[in-house]
Amino acid sequence: MSTDVTDKSPAAAPPGKGGGSATGGAMLQLVVDGLRRNMRQYGMLIALGLLVILFQVWTDGDLLLPRNVSNLVLQNSYILILAIGMMLVIIAGHIDLSVGSLTAFTGAFAAVLTVQHDLAWPVALVLCLAVGAAAGAAQGFLIAHLGIPSFIVTLAGMLIFRGLTEMLLKGQTLGPFPDGLQKMGNGFLPEVGPDTNYHNITLLLGFALLTFAVLQEVRDRKRQQEFALEVVPRNLFLLKLVAISAAILTVTMLLASYKGAPIILLILGILVVGYGYVMRNAVFGRHIYAIGGNLPAAKLSGVKDKKVTFLVFLNMGVLAAVAGLVVAARLNAASPKAGLSFELEAIASAFIGGASMSGGVGTILGAIIGGLVLGVLNNGMNLLSVGTDWQQVIKGMALLIAVGFDVWNKRKSGS
Question: Is residue 238 a contact partner of residue 214, using CB atoms and an 8 Å limit?
Answer without folding.
Answer: no
